[in-house]
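the two lines:
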Amino acid sequence: MANSRSIEKEHSQEPFKVALFCGSSGAMDVLETFLSAIDRGLKAAIVVLLHRKATTQDYLARYLGQKTLVNVQAIEHGTLLEKGTIYMVPAGYHCLMEKNMTLSLDLSEKEMFSRPSADVSLESFSYNLKERLIAIIVSGANADGAKGAKWVWKRNGKIIVQQPEEASIGTMPMAVIEAIETVDHIVPSNELYTTAAKYF
Amino acid sequence: METLVEISENELDDFIQLSNKLYGLDFSGYAMESLRRRVLRLMKLKSCDSFTAFKYFLTNHELSDDDLLNEITVNTTEMFRDAEVFKFVRDEIFGVLETYPRINIWHAGCSTGEEPLSLAILLKERGLLRRSVQYCTDINSEVIAQAKKGIYELKEMKEYSSNYIKSGGELSLSDYYVANYGKVKMSSELQDNMVFTKHNLVNGTSFNQMHMIMCRNVFIYLTTAQQNKVLRLFIDSLVPRGYLILGAKESAVFSTVLNELEIVNGKLKIYRKRT
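prediction for all of em together
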């Protein structure tokens, strides 16, 4: 049933862009700035992946819902992506993108000590979305995201990185800049959304 | 730059067919992206830098059937994972279970046995352990062998203890194990009433009437069609008003059998069979 339902929706929807926002320590403020810039007519879907303790409750979706004008939804296994919505990756699971635009969760090994891992999601999202993926990598203390960004780059997605000097911990954005030949944009946190929105 | 190994959709289909023909393992009902990720991981592990090399490796049967199954399936589990669920079982469901003279519980996809043990501890504290039979099944015989041993890493126990307390545990988790050489051995009494069997949920049949079925974080690896099949099996295996508990991020809401289930707690994914 879920399948036929998602197939119907898939056909009724024009292909849209997906922005995957990845961050770790120091990313919360950046995320709030990013979300507050979103206007009602959001033409893309936004997926937010933050490194969090696995036991964290899902209050984050509710809290962030108050910071933005569009709908914020916590991801469950099988959630269908639709434009105009922000999706939160749950703590403790990897998040994968299926071909039919539904999201899958996975409990396999941590990558870079992280689950959810940005490397895992960036690879999976770029596999199925190709040039429709816009990756945004912000503040964090490890190099999770650098390997995934290579895939995004190879598959013609866009990569936007927070200025490492401006980030509270610049390791994660710096690792991405070092991993690939040219990232598309390196911008301060208050320009992340407007930069991404140019592609929506 | 490290080479990026990739496989196409057709190659993944090839893998599904090969493992079916050569190893007798049917991965066609697996969630695609999870499967692709596991295959890529196994290729890296075996130093295959292309799918052709991996195919050669598979056809030369350098893995046993069990090895392949082990590498592809995910067996991550914890004690008292999602403590709220265990607290709900303890506070709300035990009161119903204790009205039965004998309590049948099925852990479908028991993996290395942490969940059956967690439940056994709570059953014991409620005085229900002796009356319960816990059927622990998994498709993977290696994890069942580990589950039977009841030996775990000591370093995990700090988190498990805190989950145990949050689940409403009355004592201390350390009352249930002895620690040595960085490992813990769980008290064997907890396993007295456990039955371990290899069982494939996707083509398996019902083997008893259950009062409660726990199947957490198995559905995330299955296609919707397979999930529906497994749900059918669960409903056929439950007594009227029996409980079904899925993983915290899984849902039976879109399934074809929803009308046969009542939602007891939507957030915790606890369902009950209608009469």
